[in-house]
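ok trying again, last paste got cut off:
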Amino acid sequence: MTLPALPLDGIRVIDFSRVLAGPLCSALLGDLGAEVVKIEPPSGDDYRAIGPFSAGESGLFNAMNRNKQSVVIDLKRDEGRALAQALCAQADVVVENFRPGVAERLGIGYAQLSAQHPELVYASVSGFGQTGPESHRPAYDIILQAMCGLMDATGSPDGAPTLVGDSISDAVSGLFASWGVLAALLARERTGKGTHVDVAMFDATLSLTAGLVARYATSGVAPRRVGNRHASSAPFGAFRAKDGHFVLAVLNNRLFERFAQTIGQPELVDDPRFTDDATRSEHEAALRARIESWSVMLSVSEVNTRLSDAGIPVAPIRNIGEALESEQARERGLLVETPAADGSTVRLPRQPVRFSAWPATRTTRAPALGEHTQSVLQKLAGLDVARIAELRAGGVLGEHEAAPRETH
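nice, full thing came through this time. structure:
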């Protein structure tokens, strides 16, 4: 059997989403070969205006909208809604992240589209899902981190609740949405029927905190933040060195014995406070003091060399730049150079999963606003040039067709 060019080759996605969670979902599908047509209002996705910028283009928009075509349609107009419905009739998947009820008012809700196209897989990404007392609420990442217990579990025990350092609720929601779409497409192969994939950022964020959820479900007690250490294991956390910090992960007695010998304190193994993981965790402060009496005399590099050579799980604390520029990240190809609007190159993230059957997945530039309006409407909606010009003159397709961008 001949393999497709990529796993999702031949799958068409119509993407009404904007900003982060929905666009990331469709970008991940595009990475795997799906044809993704992004429908934007005349003003464009809000992320186009959010920095940082390179050559006048938003880095955030570029990353979340790689591998897509852009079509401008004003969904507030009857003709615009009719065009959107026509495009969805040619799709395998629709992705939207409007508040519940908005897609229905625009004539592109699941019930409306699936009535004419029962094979359609339709993914809705919203703050709190399509049901429940909070479903009407708008949601931003900070709101979800606060409401799902993630902030409360992050930070020093004597400090304020702390945000995780990126829009993790948005990202995990996009990831779960793409996972749901893939499951629905597989089921469609077996049943011939599509489905509505309802992804709530609230649900996804709670699912992300799998350890916290498991602890609460077992004990009935909400875990509290413990700072840069593990809630129930030791030594497992961040420790001081002479010139910075490093992290250490020792999870069993055999490893602890080797660690104690490596740092020149074999007597720690016989100390009744440190006989097993539970007692070490209970007396974590005392154990930390003994460890740091050794580590503060050494640089982070020296600590990492000595512990790594002994087979102890240890690592320096890098910033994101150091991580992405590391030899490991380069070998795995996590950033890809691809042609930018002006013919220079832009670095875009590549999806992280590797497949033995395909040498690489796809990473192409994000589109200019409305760049593919004419070509997509000709191909999928069967409109001729005159009709497209008429719709553009009437404001249905925005003010103008974006000039095609050079590629080299």
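cool. The chain has two domains: 12-209+330-393, 236-321. Confidence is low (pLDDT under 50) at residues 403-408.
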